[in-house]
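Consider the following input, taken from an annotated entry for ATP-dependent Clp protease ATP-binding subunit (Candidatus Accumulibacter proximus).
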Amino acid sequence: MNLGDFLTSSANESLQLALAAGHAHAKAASQRTHLSYLLAKLLDDQSVRAKLPEPVRVRAQAALAEQVLALPQEDHRKGELSFDLEALAGPAVETMGNLGSPRVTPLLFLATCLSPSIAMDAESERARGCLRIAGITAEMFLPGATERARRQDFTFRSQGLGNDGLGTDITAMARAGVWPTCPLVGMERQLENLVVVLNSMRYSAAIVGEPGVGKSAFIRGLAWHIVHRTRPLIPPDMDSWTLVRIEAADILKGTSGRGDLEGRIKEMLAFFARNPTVIPFFEEVHKLLDTDDTSSRAVATALKVPMAEERFRCVGVTTDREYARFIASDDAMNSRFRKILLPEPGEEEACRIVAGTKDDLLRGKAAQQGVSITDDAIRTAVRVTSVYQKSDRLPRKAINLLGETVAEKAYRLSIADAANSPAGLSTVITGKDVARFFSNVTSIPVDDLNDDRSAYYTALEARLKNRVRGQRIAIESVTRHLALHASGLVDKRRPRGRLLFLGPPGVGKTELATALAEEVMRDSGSLVTVNMAEYTKEDSLNKFMGASPGYVGFGQTPTIYSKVMMRSYSVVVLDEFEKAAPELANPLISMLDGRGEDSQGRMVDFSQCIFVMTSNALTQKEVLKGVVLGRIQVGDAAEVTRVLKGMGVDSSETSFTMPGLIERIERLDDAAAGSLLDQLGGTGEEGLRAHLTSLGGIWTAPLVDRIDRIALFRSLDKTVLHEILERMIDARRAASARPLPAEIDSPGSRDAIIGWATTDGAGTSARRLERSLLRWLSDKVLGVAGPC
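Applying the prediction step yields:
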């Protein structure tokens, strides 16, 4: 059979160019030489370029070029072909017929050259290995090859294992093309360690890592490299090795009693003893070694002795916690396992891993709809999940997000097709599509992740000032800190804000926290409020963290931990903070550092939270003392002079002393103290921190030191009260089924309402003003004059 008769013109052109390149280099005897040239020319074909990511193709070309340069120069007879085209002709034509193609295209020609079923000598294997190491396999160019492979039965069967077989042969899966590209990226060093451990023929290997880092993909990558004989990673004596995935159900299958189970285990152990090149792989090896679990106790008991005596070895995956509990705690087992740690990949490595899963994500309806994924979509998926899903691990969380985005795109396209209105819907998934889908699912606003944030926070400050009246200094302090955190200049492991709102009751502290939830988190449901006055007794710590295992209520009462675990993007309000028991300081410090562990041992991420601690522990005079002392401590002479003049004290007086200044502050009323605070134009936070620490109780020095900003809230003056009253009246007018009395719009009525709210010279709050308004309305309804 003459392959040239079946080649398309472009495939034949690649072959002729390879012959010309070989002649120019003057080589003839090496099969590797011409195969390297042919592979290089096929990679340059436009149809192949369209199938491959450019970085992958460039890496493969560079590796082939290095091989060509290393070849010795020999005599070459023009037109001579050093490798047998007939060995490629049969498989190429067969594939052409199976796919219904009239000719062998460059894609089919390249797939035939890379097919593992076609045997080649060591020299040619090196040439094919250049492409395999770069992640290029035959299955990438065969339509539907992966789908057909997935439908096969991969049960491992061998003599001595009974008719049902045992487990799943993952090397057979790799050979059949279930994974068209290598599922292993960025773990070469760990894979080398695993190969060394397995070749020792003595030890078992434990792949240890957090859920989602790619432990199972790591084993699939080993199977892929064994099948494709990747050199120098896989030594020749491993080419015939087989990896078999075994689950507890595979061992228990077909056994009806303890005697049957023991016989099954003995049969399995005898088989692996006779076949040392068949390596069992356990997804959760700690479950097989758990003698406390009644369902696996017999299996664990039977396996531990032969493993300890080096008569049985395996590869298992587990987490750090389970490894420490079930393996490291048993000296005999620990000595038989070699621990291989798999860390979470960085964002750049994660992007490469996710890119390698594109073909797997674009299956089924997505493939039918022609959905495609851009590189920007991959980068966005990795970045968004890295920032907003700290409790999960890369690359799985990014792959899951991208997979869900693909499913949503395919769904919308299918709906549009059914309605005969596909116009305007793109089949391409971009970074904006990923961010939009993530925002819709999690209610986390990430659509402006890459935008300039300065304009956003300027507008945010204006919106907050419009909503919370009379607290300009507090709002500016809060928004400036949020902008600083968003700039990336602050440790991202900390919460987005650790804010203390100090001020009298009813002046807008809780309202500002609610506004932050709605404006920053864009969802009022993201507000988590904890009344710290409920945690003042001796058992407050257990109540705050949740009941410990074995106690009544364990896992039943929601805590701040469980609420944030369900919704990590939250504004957490710790109301009446000064009333909390001192025992809560330690868990609160952990939360303010960004991570906290509850009574069940679950680590909860608080880095996406804004903590707001509200307190009215200090009067306006006490706050003023802290501010003034703080300014004096930092040596701000100009500011001290301005403060003293504001108090009617001449700073040039030689008799002036610190006690005298404090005495003058004590003689001020709250209104005068608040006015002076406004004149300062800042908070003097260091003096306030020292003053809070001196109060004792929950105000421990480490906790106070973790507060990012102290926002001071003033009592409301009459101008602000008029504005607030106007809003209250408008809100009740809109909600009321009957019109409000007409005289409520008169200046005299409004002055009277505010006057009632400010009787006895007491500090006025919004709640006090609301009560005054309701009293005025009730008087009008009943026809009563004056306050009751």
